Amino acid sequence: MAAVANAPAPAPAGPPDVAVEHLTHVYETANGAVKALDDIDFEVPQGKFVGIVGPSGCGKSSLLLMLAGLLQPSEGRIVVREHALTAPRPADVGVVFQEASLLPWKTALENVEFPLKLRGTARAERRDRALELLELVGLADFRDRLPHELSGGMRQRVSIARGFSQDPKILLMDEPFAALDEQTRLTLGDELLKIWTRHQKTVIFVTHSLTEAVYLCDEVLVMSHRPGRIIDRVTIPLERPRTYEMMATETFGHLRERIWRSIRTT
Amino acid sequence: MTQRASYLAVQIAILAAILTGWEIASRSGAVNAMLLPPFSEVATQMGRMLVSARFLENLGVTALEVVLASAIVAPIGVLIGLVLAESPYLGAAYRPFFFFLTGVPKSIFLPIFILIFGIGISQKVAFGVFQAVFVLVIATMTAASSVAPELVRLAKVSGATRWQIYREIYWPAMLPIVIEGMRLGVIFNITGVIFAEMSVSRAGIGALVAEWGRNFEIANLIGGILITALLCIAINESLRWYELRVGKWRQ
């Protein structure tokens, strides 16, 4: 089991897309300072799909906000494509949030177009691009629906399409499927892999589902309970494209178990 | 749709029953016809009023006062509301005054307005503004605090500038609640203007109705009240229609 899990990752082609360097985060509460993240250090090579798992309250979400440029760390820094990150950089980093966060007054299509509209892309061009993405997530027929007329799974699909419409080099996903049922989760995971293969992005995927982490990722970082530290890095050597059958294999089970053990011992 | 039609049928039937009951009560002598003339008589009188120059002139004065007061109060109310909602310091310092004053009946201040502005149009407009501004300020503050922080966050990571965040997130999110505040503001505004006209005034629908009351011109009095009521309902409903239209996304 350990032999499989420790299989070396293929050497990265160029400089890493994301380098997190000795990140520590402390925030003040009424009861004093709380250390949320402690010396987080990792790199994500270009084009890789990296998962972050950990118990609730391990600071995953804070880490993600920092990777998005929305929150400044107390110590350490984040380097995205060779430049230190100090504010949101939409051309480099896109985010898909847990609660789809669609603009409720815009249709599915307009929501996917939104990042393009902000940067002043011509109407016809952004419409074409958004439609193509909506088609890719199977929602072309729902383009004119408002978010409250869509199911939870559909909303999350729109949100993913929007993440891709911005065409960032790196896509951060914060438990995007957490609110969905198991079947929708699996289907959406597969669709995500399909789009990822086609658009070749670097993905950082936060989840609390171990199965999802093993199924989707090239590497899984395991975080400890507060203060969040990285206590294990598990390379997933399963070949791509991933298939449902792989979930039943011994390798898959071992990987899942190893992650589970790491989490449990914290 | 059929359900809606059946509600409408019931509502029309209720209205017809009330008007018929009124007619019968008055004609049979069950109520004093001096105090409540039959509906048919009032309706005839209303028809006459709608073509009478005196009535229309006074109605015009009131309409002008309400429109001027609305034009003044809308930008002022929204601006004050936005500043109080967005500036932590000013908000904390001044918000309580608005909440306190909302609970005080504005009518008690009327004599002060008469002393400052006299008894002409400017006094009615000022009093209308005073009546309406509080509800609009509070609605705007509520609207600003109802903007979901997730959406602002999303706009930021999608590359929105500060101005784009206002235009694309704050404006559409706040609009339905601000319009609702304006609708309530218009109601308070009209209330203030008419109250001021009834107290001391030479013109306006309030002055006219008060005069009819004093002179015991009952058919005119009731007719004037009904026409004013119908106009206010029309204004309120059209603003509500607009409010629902821009707030369709609120389910």
CATH architecture of chain A: 3-Layer(aba) Sandwich
| CA-CA gap between termini of chain B | 18 Å
Silhouette of chain A = globular
Please give the share of residues in helix of chain B.
over 70%
How many structural domains of chain A? 1
Estimated radius of gyration of chain A = 18 Å
Q: Which segments of chain B are poorly predicted (pLDDT under 50) over 5 or more consecutive residues?
A: none
Write down the CATH topology of chain A: Rossmann fold
The CATH superfamily name of chain A is: P-loop containing nucleotide triphosphate hydrolases
Task: Name the biggest interface.
Answer: A-B, 25 and 20 residues
Sequence stretches where pLDDT stays below 50 over 5 or more residues of chain A: 1-9
| SSE series of chain B | HHHHHHHHHH
- Multimerization status: heterodimer
CATH H level of the largest domain in chain B: which superfamily? MetI-like
Please, what is the average pLDDT of chain A? 88
Helix/strand/pairing category of chain B: mainly alpha
Organism (chain B): Xanthobacter tagetidis
Family (chain B): Belongs to the binding-protein-dependent transport system permease family.
Membrane topology (chain B): Multi-pass membrane protein
Subcellular location (chain B): Cell membrane
Question: Quick gist of this model?
Answer:
The complex is a heterodimer of chains A (266) and B (251). By secondary structure, chain A is α/β, with parallel strands linked by helices.
Write the layout of secondary structure elements.
The complex is a heterodimer of chains A (266) and B (251).
Chain A: H1 2-5, E1 18-29, E2 32-44, E3 49-53, H2 60-67, E4 75-80, E5 83-84, E6 93-96, H3 108-118, H4 123-136, H5 152-165, E7 170-174, H6 182-199, E8 202-206, H7 210-216, E9 219-223, E10 230-235, H8 250-264
Helix pairs in contact in A: 3-4, 3-5, 4-5, 5-6, 7-8
Chain B: H1 2-28, H2 39-50, H3 53-86, H4 88-102, H5 110-117, H6 121-145, H7 149-157, H8 162-199, H9 205-214, H10 218-246
Helix pairs in contact in B: 2-10, 3-4, 3-6, 3-8, 3-9, 4-6, 5-6, 6-8, 7-8, 8-9, 8-10, 9-10
Subcellular location (chain B): Cell membrane
InterPro entries (chain B): MetI-like, MetI-like_sf
Protein name (chain B): ABC transporter permease subunit
